[in-house]
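Quick one: structure for this chain?
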Amino acid sequence: MRVSPSSPKSSRDPSRESLSPSALETKLANSNEFSPSSDEAEDQAIRLVDASDDEPYADAFAKIQRCQEILGYDFQDLDLLRSALTHASGASNRLASNERLEFLGDSVLGLTVCEWLFNEYPEYSEGDLTKIKSAVVSRRSCGKAACKLGLDQCLIVGRGVTRNRSYPKSLVSDVFEAVIAALYIDGGPEIVRNRLKDWLADEVNLAVDTQGSGNHKSVLQQYAQRELSATPVYRLIRETGPDHRKMFLMGAMVDDRSFAPAWGNNKKDAEQRAAANALAELHGNSVPYDSDQPPV
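Got it. Here's what it folds into:
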């Protein structure tokens, strides 16, 4: 079943209006953990890539506010969000960075995606679900999702990262996991679940298409018997080519419904592809194999 992104329900508390940058700065300034003393403000280890020497924290508040807008969520604990956005290079010490939250976020992300796949794809085996989950929670996928959301623009880094340098994917994938952990702590699992289903829908669909079961016939049979009380059958529609290089066009039928056929180098391969096409149509997806022309 192809997952369609849906806008997460807003969890903004109407009784808590979004803070203006000045109000946000005031709230953070009252925090013991992040409030610099008057003597140490200019030498504080936390630095932004675009912060001026005169106002080293000016952009941090804007980044925190922007991140809340991206997430569609107002944090009760702004220090928690700041920690999630702060790379080790921009923290006063390692414990003040997002590394601990990244540790938690990795597990929250994995559990949430596992539950999602378990409920959404009952016809897939444990091995297939494991392959799909690994692709969805990979650094590549998390980095891609983070950049698409704009979390890379909210990242707080130190002086070692130059203003014009583009962030490596590993850096933004880490902040993605840290933000997930911060949302989990501040808002609970439902807040995380709703947002991940929106942010990672494309990645799940891609992983299902590329990492799912190689035995499409088996998956189609299980699905058809469970959902349609029918057993798939396959028919030869066309064959072409010389004897030593025959190509076969096979189509799947389930309960008198015909699905887009597919070409293969032999009947077995063509049936597998035809089953993949049938599964795609049953789940409302575009078919992965062309039936118009045999493959070259």
